[in-house]
Amino acid sequence: xxxxxxxxxxxxxxxxxxxxxxxxxxxxxxxxxxxxxxxxxxxxxxxxxxxxxxxxxxxxxxxxxxxxxxxxxxxxxxxxxxxxxxxxxxxxxxxxxxxxxxxxxxxxxxxxxxxxxxxxxxxxxxxxxxxxxxxxxxxxxxxxxxxxxxxxxxxxxxxxxxxxxxxxxxxxxxxxxxxxxxxxxxxxxxxxxxxxxxxxxxxxxx
Length: 206
What we know:
Elements: H1 3-30, H2 33-55, H3 63-69, H4 71-84, H5 89-108, H6 114-138, H7 148-167, H8 177-205
Helix pairs in contact: 1-2, 1-8, 2-4, 3-5, 4-5, 4-6, 5-6, 6-7, 7-8
């Protein structure tokens, strides 16, 4: 990992800390569970970034890092479902739990099913983060600009699925390991900035 990547990851971590601070402030007022899920997702993002800064991209090969990183899309998607689709939150909670356990067991155990479990659960969580904010914005149920959360979801979906293919020994389209590692740090920063812009609009409105 070069210094450019480290600086970009540091900026990503600072943006994640800012979001955690905003969510915590709202939680102190409203005590809503969805803010806890958001905090969990971005706290994992911050910790993952710090570990990568000091440990390098080699850490991505660890099944434990891959498993913990799954909490980022699952945490954000759980927050969205709890906040905006409460009628489905119980079902999605079970889905998220099964997904996390499936990724943990197949990754740590080195099972071939990891090639299915990681893209499947990452992909569905990413689609929720991508589509739900845009739909809510179109229906004018959220503040203008909240659709940026969907852009963050699109970026995490692309990066997460492509990275999952690489760590599993396969390749998605032109996303070779070299290509992924070249764009991963800027992709994480753009993703976090999109989340920051969109979620800040929601926090300000509430």
